[in-house]
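tool_call: predict_structure(chain=1)
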Amino acid sequence: MEGKENYDREEIFSKSVRAGRRTYFFDVRSTRAGDYYMTITESKKFSNEDGSAHYKKHKIYLYKEDFDEFAGSFKEVSDFIFDKKGREVISNQENTETQEDTASSSLDSDDDSDSISDIKFE
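tool_result:
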């Protein structure tokens, strides 16, 4: 059971970042040769119909020979996103509420129109 042995390896260092329903884990582990590598795990919480919770996890294994290129690409992509969209979070929830408010105010207006769209039903 070589896989199980590898799975149970002791974490040498760990850092977590909570972000809403997601938690990101940055863990340092040891190879069989005694070198270190990093695992980055995204854990996302879901609720079952009975109210109990379950988690879905996605994991990336990152070896130190790739750290510099990974960090550089991460920074470049992050900078691109911040440059194009800013640091403020844009969510569908806000857009949905704005659309609902607009639709609601259109329905409440004193417009004598029989429809709220150009769609004709036959």
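agent: The two ends are 67 Å apart (CA to CA). Proceeding to next step.
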